[in-house]
Design goal:
Elements lengths: L1 E5 L7 E4 L10 E9 L2 H8 L9 E2 L3 E9 L12 E4 L9 H4 L23 E4 L5 E3 L5 H4 L7 H9 L9 E5 L3 H12 L8 E5 L3 H9 L4 E3 L4 H8 L3 E6 L4 H10 E10 L18 E5 L4 H12 L7 E5 L3 H10 L5 E5 L1
Parallel strand pairs: 9-10, 9-12, 10-11, 12-13, 13-14, 15-16
Antiparallel strand pairs: 1-2, 1-4, 3-5, 3-7, 3-16, 5-6, 6-8
Length: about 350
């Protein structure tokens, strides 16, 4: 099979031919239909992403078809079934895993980080429980749901206690993840239609897209005063999908007392935390991935036609071109590598 691999930080992506692995034990082999290209992949290439084992086949947003199973697989999607791969592979036995949150497992591994991922024609998944059936969804189109779709879903779910009618929400970054977040906010049954949502972006194209997806106001200006004025007050919730020092500084300046700041993704930025650094009783948290149930709920929403997202299919052999485009900001939605 063909696979795009990284052998060292700062090195070139290599398209290689590898033996097609036979699943053993409880493993499942997936015939990859599509794998999303994420900014985290760029960080892995650059050597700025922690918890990476090299060499590795990149790619953690994977969907495809069940192709073969190991001898210990007793249940799960049948051969030929279209599935999306949940990326948090835990031990299956600890408190977090038994609670359904394997992505929080102390011993978890993830495709494209510590295990070979989906920049390939096939990949091995350690257990059938990591597979979510796709229903009527096209697996090429569904690949981004594995991260770009599920991570903001978990963030919005985490923020539900603050998301009451009339709450002010600032979304920093309306790329692949931020666009999903806007839709989840508007889908909240009790308050979605009454939230005041502002988006801060550097791209006028993304600001226009954010307006189509439910934002009340879009800002190309990162000035905190502009955001506060546009929202009609300080933000009760800030969802930061960029995570640089600059955006985190803005969150500290715009969040309301008792408000919530969620850092989504691994932008490598930081902010001071102390009693005098933030409004009183500000809550700070992070999210990464989502649980199995989170991913199932995202797939259900997508299969019901309640979510909109854009993809562009790119041949697997052009993975380096896809990375260059993502670095340059030449992407409207999500690039998906197709073997």
């Amino acid at each position: 099979m063909r696979a795009v691999r990284l052998h060292g930080a700062g090195g070139a992506l290599r398209l290689e031919r590898l033996p097609t692995a036979e699943p053993t034990g409880a493993q499942v082999r997936i015939r990859v239909a599509g794998c999303g290209v994420c900014r985290t992949d760029l960080q892995i290439v650059d050597g700025t992403q922690a918890r990476v084992s090299l060499p590795v086949t990149l790619g953690h947003e994977v969907a495809g078809f069940v192709e073969a199973v190991g001898p210990e697989v007793a249940e799960g999607p049948p051969i030929g079934a279209a599935v999306v791969v949940h990326g948090g592979w835990g031990c299956g036995e600890c408190r977090e895993c038994t609670a359904g949150a394997e992505q929080l497992c102390e011993h978890s591994v993830a495709p494209g980080f510590q295990a070979d991922g989906g920049y390939a024609e096939t990949m091995l998944v350690p257990h059938a429980r990591h597979l979510v059936p796709l229903g009527n969804l096209d697996p090429v189109r569904a690949a981004p749901l594995a991260d770009a779709g599920v991570t903001p879903y978990r963030a919005v779910r985490r923020a539900e206690g603050w998301l009451v009618p009339g709450a002010r929400v600032l979304v920093i970054g309306a790329g692949g993840l931020g666009q999903f977040a806007l839709q989840y906010l508007r889908l909240l049954p009790a308050a979605g239609a009454e939230l005041i949502i502002g988006v801060r972006e550097l791209s006028s194209r993304r600001v226009r897209r954010a307006s189509e997806l439910g934002a009340n106001v879009g800002m190309l200006d990162g000035n905190p005063g502009t955001a506060i004025e546009a929202l009609g007050g300080r933000a009760d919730v800030v969802l930061d999908f960029v995570g640089t020092d600059a955006t985190l500084t803005q969150t500290a300046a715009v969040v309301a007392p008792g408000g919530l700041v969620i850092l989504i993704g691994e932008g490598r930025g930081s902010m001071p935390f102390g009693f005098d650094d933030l409004p009183v009783e500000t809550w700070l948290t992070t999210v990464a991935w989502g649980s199995h149930d989170d991913l199932r709920n995202v797939v259900r929403l997508a299969d019901d036609g309640l979510l909109r997202w854009e993809i562009e299919a790119v041949p697997l052999a052009d993975a380096a071109v896809a990375h260059a485009r993502l670095r340059a900001g030449d992407v409207a939605g999500r690039l998906v590598l197709v073997p």
